[in-house]
Design goal:
mainly beta, six-stranded antiparallel beta sheet, 10 helices
């Protein structure tokens, strides 16, 4: 018999035996997630809606649903005594009588006491983020109704639990917020497994079984395993241990070696499954299946983080588990949305801050490819050793088989119980490295929120902080040979429109030079807002609006900044058709990606739709460029490409997700034909009165005030336009010295000379109706911004359409992430992260603006800056209240529009812009600045 036939025969024989095996049966008593719930009887003991029995959906948080009290960071008032009393009846099947029945809670906040049919089934569980279970076989009435009673105390009786979980920088909810279910297993069953599958094909698993027997006679117990593809096709014959020692929670190790397995990484998340079978003789008593991936993780001191022998850099974000309508009770749709959002920013990693997530989230990280830092709760305080030991076990035994999990985090920012460090390895045969986020520990410096100069030292291999468990201090010897891998687990603390993307470009340019860079994790993924009964989103003042995206994952500007900076393929244009390509992947060749080029012509000012027309496009094969290497690609563009406005190049990853689209102008974009056409309103007539100089052409009238030399107003027929009081320099007040007017080549010229900030202004009114304003002003010394302004009432502005970088505004230290195009949006009152969450925000500074049309209640006003390096400010963005704004406060002029040669940088929650590198430093004026802007009023 051939080896292939022999293998098939062995598998067929095995499958015949397997068909009689008993799998675990899972019966939900609750719903499965926030969108699929089951009503239980419920009473809250204090606070709102308390004292009466009603019903509540399970899983859920009672405080999010209006019971009791809802608090951030700590329990206060009645919450200290608040309890939720649950009752639920269910029927236990008669045929479970000869089985073992386990009652499983995936997560309850916080102290949980459980009764079944009036009897307490086990000790009160403490710890709100962990799976726990009870064997309730002896408490059930089979074939009858059973009464389940659950008493949940929001505030724990264990003070260390409160300090670790409920005195922390997140919402502190109450309730059964993850599913509750029964697991029905045979009396002899596999309790759990812990897998270690290495990149070299070595596979081993610790199998824990319950095989109690009253007589040590008859066939022996054995463990058998078989590895399969993720689709269930066998890739091995069964292997295992023929004789195991009977007992409860007895451990047996099974092992095998596989040749050339497909390896798991975030870039290539190849998964397998393995089926374990508990046998007695030839009889299969119980079987269970686990997913896993072959992969090896190494922390190489003085070097970096390696996956499967390849150095990786983690580009990550911190993620809370929250949804505005349901708190920490989530769903698969929310988990997928979060992963889509994370990967959409070209991130490859996520930190579970500051507690373990739903297991389904980790399942999806395995499937879709994200590296994970899995975290034991604790923020400045930690669990005591007794309760901490139990919770470490619950955390690790639940999550140990996820290949996505690279590290265990023992608390956060001082919430480290050092006596627990070694215990993670008791349950993890892979012995993943344990981190102390905020400390330099186990060869990884995770220091948080270092300022730029201090981070620069750390990036060169020397941590600026090292942990003693007591005091953090700067390292004085920059040549210390004990180099730590630099991987801040929190940096650029987002708040409102600050942090996150702001400063990232400078940090990343610096950090990438480090030979020991392990990566970085931004704080935080989304604004952690909760929807109150009145429909408002509560972000607990400025404690929780720290997100790169909004509460419902609305994408803010920093999302796109990060997406561009962290794209694993970087493309630049060396001439009009030659691309330089850099591969920053770890495992993916550029040839596996897809490139699409387009020649685009932008929509024009009067076109009904914003956007562009594609004149030509192509999908050339990408060259082979290995990870860490550079290469070139010559595009075969049409000869008539001069008719196009721009070249766009998009790179998609092997899964078809856009990494980034680069857009480069191919010609001198507008001012174009719409300013140079032969349309005439008529001949220009200029006149002077005691108060003003006026120029009239057709139905257009422009008035310049003789006292100030500023624009007084504009009329088009009977319609007045309220643009006025400009151009006024933002530096120091100006005084008019002289004002003259004359005609030159049918153009009316009104020329003003000034002292102070403004030095000169020339108005040119053309027969076409276009109005040019050429100006010069002086700026010296440090300033948040400088340029010239015009007044216009904000209440008249309805929308804007423009050709330039967009669709989001920019700051000096956050210019990346915009794309050259024609954009439009309606006026909104969004204050980033504080109110509305209608993005992109309307007001602010915009870069590389070629033209902009403001739609107003008075009619359209078209603005054409002539300097591509200047910024166009539209209105003054509103800011959160003074006591909330932190270090994200900015200064901009009060105006309708402004032409600025310098704009402010923006800070983060706790750090001023100056700490974010060169682009965060104050602007320095160096003398006279000149500029020109053109206006058109009406259609």
């Amino acid at each position: 018999m051939s080896q292939r036939l022999l293998l098939a025969h062995v598998i067929n024989v095995f499958l015949a035996a397997y068909c009689s095996a008993q799998h675990t049966e899972q019966v939900y008593l609750s719903g499965t997630d926030k969108d699929h719930t089951v009503d239980w009887q419920f009473q809250c003991t204090s606070g709102a809606r308390s004292g009466e029995w009603t019903t509540i959906p399970v899983p859920s948080h009672w405080d999010v649903l209006g019971f009791g009290s809802l608090n951030y960071k700590k329990d206060i008032g009645s919450a200290l005594e608040e309890r939720g009393l649950y009752k639920h009846t269910f029927e236990a099947a008669k045929d479970w009588e000869d089985e073992r029945v386990l009652l499983v809670f995936e997560g309850v906040m916080t102290d949980t006491t459980v009764k079944l049919n009036g009897q307490t089934v086990g000790p009160t569980h403490q710890g709100g983020f962990y799976r726990f279970q009870y064997d309730v076989s002896d408490f059930l009435k089979f074939g009858e109704k059973n009464l389940l009673e659950v008493d949940v105390a929001k505030h724990s009786a264990n003070e260390s639990v409160n300090k670790a979980e409920r005195t922390a920088d997140f919402w502190v909810f109450g309730g059964i917020y993850r599913p509750v279910y029964l697991k029905i297993v045979p009396n002899q069953f596999i309790e759990r497994v812990a897998i270690d599958a290495q990149a070299n094909g070595e596979f081993s698993a610790e199998v824990f079984s319950s095989t109690n027997t009253s007589k040590n006679i008859g066939p022996k117990f054995s463990i058998e395993a078989q590895v399969k593809t993720i689709d269930g096709e066998p890739v091995s014959t069964p292997f295992g241990v023929e004789t195991i020692t009977p007992g409860s929670n007895s451990s047996t190790t099974v092992a095998a070696k596989f040749d050339s397995p497909q390896l798991w990484s975030a870039e290539k998340p190849n998964l397998y499954q393995v089926e374990f079978r508990l046998k007695r003789g030839s009889e299969v008593l119980h079987s269970t299946t686990e997913r896993f991936g072959f992969r090896t993780v190494e922390v190489r001191a003085d070097d970096g983080i390696y996956v499967n022998g390849q150095k990786v850099v983690l580009k990550g974000v911190n993620r809370h588990s929250t949804w505005p309508d349901s708190g920490r009770c989530l769903s698969e749709a929310v988990h997928r949305l979060d992963i889509e959002t994370i990967q959409g920013m070209n991130m490859n990693a996520v930190r579970m801050s500051h507690y373990p997530p739903d297991p389904q989230f980790l399942d999806l990280c395995d499937e879709l490819g994200l590296y994970v830092l899995d975290e034991l709760a604790g923020w400045h305080w930690h669990y005591d050793t007794q309760i901490g030991s139990q919770l470490v076990k619950e955390l690790v035994t639940r999550d140990v088989n996820h290949p996505a999990v690279l590290f265990w985090d023992n608390g956060n920012e001082g919430g480290f119980n050092y006596s627990l460090d070694e215990q993670f390895g008791w349950y993890d045969p892979q012995h993943r490295t344990v981190l102390h986020p905020w400390e330099a520990f186990n060869h990884v410096n995770t220091a948080h929120y270092l300022e730029f100069d201090r981070a620069e030292v750390a990036s060169k291999g020397v941590p600026t902080r090292h942990g003693t468990g007591e005091v953090y201090q700067e390292w004085e010897d920059v040549n210390d040979p004990n180099k730590y891998i630099y991987m801040p687990t929190e940096m650029l603390h987002g708040l409102y429109d600050g942090g996150s993307g702001a400063g990232l470009e400078a940090y990343w340019e610096m950090m990438r030079q480090s030979p020991v860079l392990g990566g970085a994790f931004l704080w935080v993924l989304f604004d952690e807002g909760i929807k109150r009964a009145d429909g408002t989103i509560d972000c607990a003042g400025n404690q929780a609006p720290d997100g790169i995206v909004g509460p419902y994952r609305e994408r803010e500007a920093s999302f796109y900044t990060i997406q561009e900076i962290w794209s694993p393929v970087q493309v630049s244009l060396s001439d009009k058709s030659s691309l330089e390509i850099k591969n920053e992947y770890s495992f993916t060749d550029v040839s596996e990606c897809k490139l699409t080029w387009q020649l685009r012509k932008f929509s024009q000012l009067d076109d009904p739709e914003a956007g562009y027309e594609v004149l030509a496009e192509g999908e050339p094969a990408l060259p082979s460029i290995a990870p860490g290497k550079k290469g070139t690609l010559q595009l075969d563009l049409p000869n008539d490409q001069h008719s196009a406005d721009c070249l766009a190049v998009r790179i998609d990853n092997p899964q078809g997700r856009e990494l980034w689209t680069w857009v480069w102008p191919l010609s001198d974009l507008p001012p174009k034909a719409f300013m140079e056409n032969d349309n005439r309103l008529g001949s220009v007539v200029i006149s002077s009165t005691e108060k003003e100089i006026s120029a009239v052409v057709g139905d257009l009238q422009v008035a310049i005030d003789k006292q100030s030399g500023m624009l007084e107003g504009v009329r088009r027929g009977d319609q007045k336009y309220s643009l006025s009081n400009g151009p006024e320099a933002t530096t120091v007040p100006s005084s008019l010295i002289s004002l003259n007017h004359r005609m030159e080549n049918e153009v009316a010229l009104i020329e003003g000379e000034f002292s102070g900030g403004l030095r000169s202004v020339t108005w040119a009114i053309h027969p076409s109706g276009w109005i040019d304003c050429t100006y010069a002003y002086q700026a010296k010394g440090e300033s948040d911004y400088f340029g010239v302004t015009f007044d216009y009432p904000a209440e008249f502005v309805q929308g804007k359409k423009w050709l330039g970088n967009g669709p989001f505004r920019v700051w000096k230290n956050r210019r990346r992430g915009g794309t050259l195009g024609v954009w439009e949006n309606e006026q909104n009152e969004t204050i980033t992260g504080y109110s509305e969450w209608d993005y992109p925000e309307f007001a602010g500074c915009f870069s590389d603006v070629h033209w902009m049309r403001l739609q107003t209640s008075e009619g359209p006003i078209t603005v054409v800056p002539h300097d591509r390096e200047s910024y166009l400010q539209v209105l003054l963005p509103e800011q959160p209240p003074e006591d909330f704004v932190g270090k994200t406060k900015f200064e901009l002029p009060q105006c309708g529009i402004a032409l600025l040669d310098a704009i402010p940088a923006v800070g983060s929650k706790f750090k001023t812009p100056e700490t974010t590198g060169p682009r965060g430093q104050p602007n320095v004026g160096k003398g006279i600045y000149e500029g020109k802007v053109s206006f058109y009023f009406g259609e």
